[in-house]
Design brief:
alpha/beta, single chain, 26% helix, Rossmann fold, binds zinc ion
Length: 187
């Protein structure tokens, strides 16, 4: 089965993975992966909300998973920041259906410009369960569904831990977008 946790930045997606990992008794049947670009926590999945972490292996592409688990008796796989990875999600379906491996995946559903984030759309399509975890608005504390890019760079890649992103509720996002449109019209 493929279980995916998604939502905006700072919503506690990694914490969900850690809480599931903590409950698993046979940790030698577990492997965890994270993207190479996430250098915040070295080779482990961490969350702001707990000292506990999951030892993880860096990969760029989903196709690397098979190489890493070859010859090992792996029953459960965790993937954090999956939105930063590349690859064909059929790799996940294959490992889930043919090899009976359970996946717990976390990643941002949307970019800082509210577009589907990389392979996350495909991952959500092949997931057996999807949990959308809201965050809390950086401006007004309301439940928040969006990550918003406050920089001027045209590059729209959320780098984990990047300070140029805010978590916003619909109302605060609307205000940002409308003021942005007004600025563009005035130019
Ligand atoms: Zn707000």
């Amino acid at each position: 089965m493929i279980h995916t946790f998604t939502g905006p930045m700072h919503s506690g997606k990694s914490l969900e993975l850690i809480n599931i990992y903590k409950k698993i008794y046979r940790k030698n049947y577990v492997m965890a992966f994270k993207p190479r670009c996430d250098k915040r926590d070295l080779d482990e999945i961490k969350s702001h909300d707990t000292e506990f972490s999951i030892p993880a292996v860096y990969i760029d592409d989903l196709s690397e998973i098979k190489e890493h688990i070859k010859g090992k008796n792996i029953h459960t796989i965790f993937i954090d920041e999956a939105n930063m990875m590349t690859g064909d999600v059929h790799e996940l379906v294959d490992l889930s259906v043919i090899y009976d491996i359970d996946f717990y995946i976390a990643g941002l559903n949307l970019t800082g410009r509210q577009e589907p984030f990389g392979i996350m759309g495909d991952i959500l399509s092949v997931s057996n369960s999807i949990t959308i975890i809201p965050g809390f608005c950086d401006q007004c504390n309301k439940q928040a569904e969006y990550s918003y890019y406050i920089g001027t760079d045209s590059l729209d890649r959320i780098i984990p831990g990047d300070e140029m992103y805010r978590t916003l509720c619909t109302k605060c996002l609307r205000e940002k977008l409308i003021s942005g449109v007004k600025r563009r019209v005035l130019k």
